[in-house]
Design goal:
Blueprint lengths: L1 E4 L2 H13 L3 H8 L8 H8 L6 E8 L2 E10 L4 E8 L8 H15 L4 E6 L4 H10 L4 E5 L2 E7 L9 H9 L2
Parallel strand pairs: 4-5
Antiparallel strand pairs: 1-2, 2-3, 3-4, 5-7, 6-7
Helix pairs in contact: 4-5
Amino acid sequence: MRVTELHRDTAGEAVDAVFAGLSARSRYLRFHAPTPRLTSSARRVLTDVDGERHAAVCARVGGDPVGIARLIKTGECGAEIALAVVDLWQRRGVGRRMLEELTGIAARMGVAELHGDVLPDNLAMLALARQVLPGVRLTREDDTVHLSYPLAWAGAEITDADLVNSLLGA
């Protein structure tokens, strides 16, 4: 498996292939709504990667796209993240590799905090966030679980006291 950064000229093919490899359930978990097809406006947003405001990585096996992880800056310091892995390659380490790569790209782009919204029944994504982003904050908000992760934690050693303080809001 190779994980490489997407560019505008490679994004369309990867987006189409990964979307086609997602079941209706996986599409629902990724887009938080039934999504039988990508609208042209949604496809345009997903392929508009510039490496400065919007970056994405693609996992490929034998040249075939099997996953995409992206981040889109949401101001000076934050970026929203999202991942999708085709059904046949889920739970094989694809999401982990892409999220690790995306964290490095976020740091290079000057992002201080990653955040995103996950449906509560997307247990695989919640477990992945806990594994790859130690100390990630998960907060229930309406119909989603909001995750936030300060990138300064990526290279730091987090103690039990840090985690307790984080949970207590201290």
